[in-house]
Write a structure and sequence with these properties.
Strand content: under 5%
Mean pLDDT: 79
Radius of gyration: 31 Å
Largest sheet: none
Structural class: mainly alpha
Order of helices and strands: HHHHHHHH
Shape: rod-shaped
Helix content: over 70%
Low-confidence stretches: 226-251
Length: 251
């Protein structure tokens, strides 16, 4: 039997064809996700650069209301979505302060939540590529195993043996495994490429978020509190009690 894909497909059983159709669906899903995410990253970077060129000047002049308007108008910009939401929170908490936390600290916390949502949006759909890359080889292997089982079942029914009796069925089964690998390998490569670009985009957004918080802290003269250990807290308690004339050391 010559290696003819059309002829091999014509001799495939029902289960082998179902496996082949499943793998083709995996391949189409991977291509759709890859090109959609790649286009998203390119558009987001272009929109971010365009917005950043105006955002820096507005922050330096403290034109926060105009900043919100520009961020709302910047469609497709992850940077505008992140910083625009932060400025909205800052203006709202500054105009109507509530509780013990200041506007800067509340903005910091809200920016962290917005950053998590933006991260989920940037990585949306990439789980499809990861799933296809890990599952497709096993789906193809399943088709191969079932195809070999059918070949030996045919030998048992007819009572004929020899390599020629099973070579056609085994070759058909192995084609399904090859198809699984042809689907999985590009999916893994596409996932790695998108992960690299998504990580670079998220890194730039994280740096912009930190620079924005530096701007707010500089405007308000706020110094971020340092993380202190339990030993420093205990030392402060001991010093305070000694000032009051109490000895906290054990008798």
């Amino acid at each position: 039997m010559n290696f003819n894909l059309l002829e091999i497909y014509a001799h495939m059983g029902f289960f082998a064809r179902c496996i082949a159709y499943t793998l083709i669906a995996f391949a189409l899903a991977s291509l759709i996700v890859f090109f959609e995410r790649l286009l998203f990253v390119f558009r987001s970077k272009a929109a971010d650069r365009k917005f950043a060129s105006r955002a820096g000047r507005m922050l330096e002049s403290q034109q926060h209301e105009q900043f919100v308007s520009e961020a709302t108008a910047a469609k497709g910009s992850s940077l505008a979505k992140l910083l625009g939401g932060g400025v909205k929170t800052y203006l709202a908490k500054k105009a109507a302060p509530q509780g013990k936390l200041g506007a800067v600290e509340l903005t910091r916390r809200d920016l962290e939540r917005i950053y998590e949502r933006v991260t989920a949006d940037v990585r949306r759909g990439m789980s499809v590529l990861a799933t296809v890359g890990s599952v497709a080889p096993f789906v193809g292997l399943l088709g191969t195993v079932v195809g070999i089982i059918e070949s030996f079942a045919g030998i048992a029914k007819t009572g004929s043996g020899g390599l020629g009796a099973v070579s056609a069925g085994i070759s058909e089964a192995l084609v399904v495994t090859a198809l699984g690998l042809l689907v999985a390998i590009p999916a893994v490569m596409m996932f790695n490429l998108l992960s690299t670009r998504a990580d670079a985009l998220l890194l730039s957004l994280d740096l912009a978020r930190k620079e924005f918080m530096d701007h707010l802290e500089d405007v308000h003269g706020v110094v971020a509190p340092a993380v202190r250990g339990e030993g420093a807290v205990a030392l402060d308690v001991e010093r305070a009690t000694r000032k009051e004339g109490h000895d906290v050391r054990p008798a």
